[in-house]
Amino acid sequence: MIDATAARQLFLSAENGLRDVERKYDDVQRKLNLNYGRQDEFAKLEGQCFEIRSGEYIYELCPFGSATQKNEHGSRVAGLGEWEDWGKDGQVDYRLWKFVHGDQCWNGPQRSLTVRVTCGTDNVILSVMEPQKCEYEMSMQSPSVCDEASVARPDRSEL
Question: Distance (Å, rounded) from C-alpha 98 to C-alpha 110?
């Protein structure tokens, strides 16, 4: 016969296992519902994070995840937002990434981030600025946004 303590331990273990499976299921569902681009060209960015140092801050951007700002000593981390969507005002634009619902600014709005992405050979953040209080803008380059129109073709006369 099993005693009450052992039964409680078994129940808690099973409950924790169920929660773990539910979290994994929710994560898979979230990924299945994400728009990774016309041909899933942005899927490879899932789970990656990129950093840039600007002034006394280190900014971290995780596409489809979150964005943060921390001081160079790492003592304070501010959330700049969570992935929301592509584009602006309901218009899909894969070169414009929106992060919203960041940490509340002191005496201001919640932080947010807009990332403007241009064609480049590597995934790299080029710059970051705060044009308005708690509204950040980041410039990034990525091969994921390159298409025939954005890639310069060699002049045939030079071949």
Answer: 14
